[in-house]
């Protein structure tokens, strides 16, 4: 019998804070649907998801897990996303390929605010969502308090679909409000139907009425029925629930205990009945119905065996192994189960598959057999908030590291790797310390390359505060013809931001024209490292006098004497350290704004103002000037102050004098430090 599958294959993203139980839910779904026959546990490090060394070592997801299964004859691909904000790019890129999301959260009202950024991301994508309140076995408070906390953090109206059944302290099952049936959880199995416990009947009626009232907001007929006290037929209630979900008007809330398969079958049935087909996602992404085969890349992996795999969702037509997409031949087409792959011949609309060896394809790319296909929108790239300086442990590995990095950057759009010319360091930047540590670990596990990491240097500069006139003579007589140069320089401070200015004040040809650029070059060379050990800026140097020798003077001797005059003169000019100040914009929920103000002042910052965050009701943006050195670990403190949701962006603003103990420390560190990496972070 052919499978009933009017919607085609569907894709469900499992999203939510880390540790809420997404990977556990995926494992239980795969077991419940017969895709795997051994149920793993995250704590025992044997789940289908999180199979990479980096995820196993941390006991948490650090990348997307993709698994395709079938439930009651219909194909579903689950995208188990990492919950940590540091890996949010994976999540954002994956969401581009979803028909719906299951927001997995813990049964704890205090944690509800951490869902806000996620709900907002789903709103922006117009992505239908189910809320799955997990770990209900541990819930102690009332379900309505929990529901109210969730609703307070979701712009989308939520509809509670189940209430818990308790035995003593423990939640052991649920009542389905649409069906008005009660079930008892059975670990590892589908829940068992029971009678609605007598003590819960009144609660059930009250919550069901609340559910129907919400639905009535979107349906006049239901509203009339409720006003006239007519009980609406169950079928029409269910139909209404699917319609409202697929139009993204409401989000149903289900309960469960993923680790014992509680609520998993109920959730699967809801996904099967209520998730819209891939046609909606294709339409939403602007894919025309007619045209050549088209797929959207959700993730890029360089597998351990060396091959590149592009995880892509087919949105139109049939993609076949061996077909040419964007000018490259698909070499292998796979159905995915975590790290395992199974070869397929082809994939149709809605399918999520791995495509082998498309070397030019990147995450977010639109693949097609047609030339000049209009590219679909990519998820925005998360800005970097944390950086590490990176050096090869073995210098011979440098070239290999940069080519391995190219691959890691292809896998993760929020990673950046670049050379900072000011501090002469290679910088790895991204979304947090763990994000970067995982990248460094991957260099080792995937490519066998070891690196040393440290805190990046801050590009301090220095300036002078006094004008000095300094003569210098360079004379060397070493048989044959010697070297001779003589200059007098006036070294003068300039206002902040002026940079370096060289003036020629020579009259009467005491220094011949052709030697003057050479003297300037000597001065410039000196400026790279001033008296305190940092680049010297905001200075005017005027060549006011000099002497030359017909035979012995050369460009070389004037370059040398230019540098010598600076070496002798600059230390007498009252040098001062300059520290870079950046302008930061810190975004937090407004009840944290006071904490941010305190944080800014502790970090020697200066508040410039604050404003409501555009498009984020209840959030503020604090604008401030902060010393750059204070932003190196700002994100760590900011996240710990704001339950993980605070973010910031920064850009260079100006240089500012730094004096006293802090300046002494910076100067001492500079003069003792070997070149390159220092102070391990
Ligand atoms: N008590 C309880 N623990 C659970 C439940 N689901 C998951 N866990 C545990 O929660 C932890 C985090 O689970 P995991 O699936 O890795 O969460 P993820 O970060 O959302 O993928 C693991 O120790 C799980 O065993 C549940 O329903 N009840
Ligand atoms: Mg996980």
CATH architecture of the largest domain: 3-Layer(aba) Sandwich
Instruction: State the strand order across the main sheet.
Output: 2-3-1-4-5-11-6
The distinct ligands, each listed once, are: guanosine-5'-diphosphate, magnesium ion
Shape assignment: elongated
Number of domains: 5
Q: What's the total helix number? A: 17
Q: Which percent bin holds the helix content?
A: 25-40%
Low-confidence segments:
675-681
CATH domain class of the largest domain = Alpha Beta
In whole angstroms, how far apart are the ends? 62 Å
Summary keywords:
single chain, 681 residues, alpha+beta, Rossmann fold, Elongation Factor Tu (Ef-tu), domain 3, Alpha-Beta Plaits, seven-stranded mixed beta sheet, six-stranded antiparallel beta sheet, 27% helix
What do you see in this structure?
With 681 residues, the chain is of the alpha+beta class. It folds into 5 domains: 219 residues, P-loop containing nucleotide triphosphate hydrolases (Rossmann fold); 79 residues, Elongation Factor Tu (Ef-tu), domain 3 (Beta Barrel), CATH 2.40.30.10; 69 residues, Alpha-Beta Plaits; 108 residues, 2-Layer Sandwich (Ribosomal Protein S5, domain 2), CATH 3.30.230; 79 residues, Alpha-Beta Plaits (2-Layer Sandwich). 27% of the residues lie in helices and 31% in strands. The strands form 8 sheets. It has a 7-stranded mixed beta sheet, with helices on both faces. Strands 18-17-20-13-12-21 form a 6-stranded antiparallel beta sheet. A hairpin with a 5-residue loop joins strand 12 and strand 13. Helix 11 packs across helix 12 and helix 13 crosses helix 14. The longest helix has 16 residues. The relative contact order is 0.09. Bound molecules: guanosine-5'-diphosphate and magnesium ion. Guanosine-5'-diphosphate (GDP) binds next to helix 1.
């Amino acid at each position: 019998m052919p499978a009933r599958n009017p919607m085609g294959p569907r894709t469900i993203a499992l999203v939510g804070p880390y540790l809420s139980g997404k990977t556990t839910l995926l494992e239980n779904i795969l077991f419940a649907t017969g895709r795997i026959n051994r149920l793993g546990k995250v704590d025992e490090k044997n789940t289908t998801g999180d199979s990479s060394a980096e995820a196993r070592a941390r006991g948490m997801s650090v990348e997307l897990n993709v698994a395709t299964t079938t439930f009651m004859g219909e194909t579903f691909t689950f995208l188990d996303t990492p919950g940590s904000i540091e890996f949010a790019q994976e999540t954002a890129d994956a969401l581009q390929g979803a028909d719906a999301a299951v927001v997995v959260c813990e049964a704890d009202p205090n944690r509800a605010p951490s869902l806000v950024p996620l709900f907002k991301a789903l709103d922006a994508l117009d992505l239908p969502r189910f809320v799955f309140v997990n770990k209900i076995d541990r819930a102690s408070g009332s379900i309505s308090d929990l529901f109210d906390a969730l609703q307070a953090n979701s712009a989308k109206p939520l509809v509670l679909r189940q209430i818990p059944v308790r035995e003593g302290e423990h939640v052991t099952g649920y009542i389905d409000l649409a069906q008005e049936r009660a079930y008892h959880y059975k670990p590892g199995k589908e829940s068992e139907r029971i009678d609605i416990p007598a003590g819960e009947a009144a609660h059930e009626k009250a919550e069901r009425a609340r559910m129907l009232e919400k639905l009535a907001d979107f349906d006049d007929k239901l509203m009339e029925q409720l006003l006239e006290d007519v009980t609406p037929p169950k079928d029409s209630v269910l139909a209404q629930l699917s319609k409202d979900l697929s139009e993204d008007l409401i989000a149903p809330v289900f309960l469960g205990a993923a680790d014992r398969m509680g609520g998993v079958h109920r959730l699967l049935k809801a996904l099967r009945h209520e998730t819209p087909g891939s046609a909606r996602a294709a339409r939403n992404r602007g894919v025309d119905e007619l045209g050549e085969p088209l797929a959207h890349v959700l993730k890029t992996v360089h597998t351990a065996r060396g091959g590149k795999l592009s995880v892509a969702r087919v949105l139109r037509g049939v993609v076949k192994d061996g077909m040419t997409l964007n000018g490259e031949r698909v070499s292998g087409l796979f159905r995915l189960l975590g790290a395992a792959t199974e070869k397929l011949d082809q994939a149709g609309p809605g399918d999520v598959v791995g495509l082998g060896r498309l070397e030019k394809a990147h995450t977010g790319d639109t693949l097609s057999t047609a030339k000049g296909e209009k590219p679909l929108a990519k998820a925005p790239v998360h800005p970097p908030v944390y950086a590490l300086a990176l050096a090869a442990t073995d210098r011979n590995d440098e070239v290999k590291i940069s080519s391995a990095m190219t691959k890691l950057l292809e896998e993760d759009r929020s990673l950046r790797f670049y050379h900072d010319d000011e501090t002469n360091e290679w910088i790895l930047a991204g979304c947090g310390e763990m994000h970067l540590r995982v990248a460094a670990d991957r260099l080792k596990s995937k490519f066998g390359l070891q690196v040393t990491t440290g805190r990046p240097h801050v590009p301090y500069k220095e300036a002078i505060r006094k004008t000095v006139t300094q003569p210098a003579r360079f004379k060397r007589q070493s048989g044959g013809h010697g070297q001779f140069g003589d200059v007098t320089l006036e070294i003068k401070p300039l206002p902040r931001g002026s940079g370096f200015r060289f003036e020629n004040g020579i009259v009467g040809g005491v220094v011949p024209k052709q030697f003057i650029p050479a003297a300037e070059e000597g001065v410039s060379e000196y400026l790279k490292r001033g008296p305190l050990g940092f680049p010297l800026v905001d200075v005017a140097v005027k060549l006011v006098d000099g002497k030359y020798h017909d035979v012995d003077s050369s460009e070389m001797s004037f370059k040398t004497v230019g540098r010598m005059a600076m070496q002798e003169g600059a230390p007498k000019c009252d040098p001062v350290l300059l520290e870079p100040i950046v302008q930061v914009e810190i975004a937090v929920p407004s009840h944290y704004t006071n904490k941010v103000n305190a944080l800014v002042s502790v970090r020697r910052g200066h508040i410039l103002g604050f404003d409501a965050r555009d498009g984020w009701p209840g959030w503020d943006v604090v604008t401030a000037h902060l010393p750059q050195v204070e932003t190196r670990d700002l994100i760590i403190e900011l996240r710990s102050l704001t339950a993980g949701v605070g973010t910031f962006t920064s850009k260079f603003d100006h240089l500012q004098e730094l004096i006293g103990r802090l300046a002494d420390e910076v100067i001492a560190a500079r003069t003792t430090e070997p070149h390159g990496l220092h102070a391990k972070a």
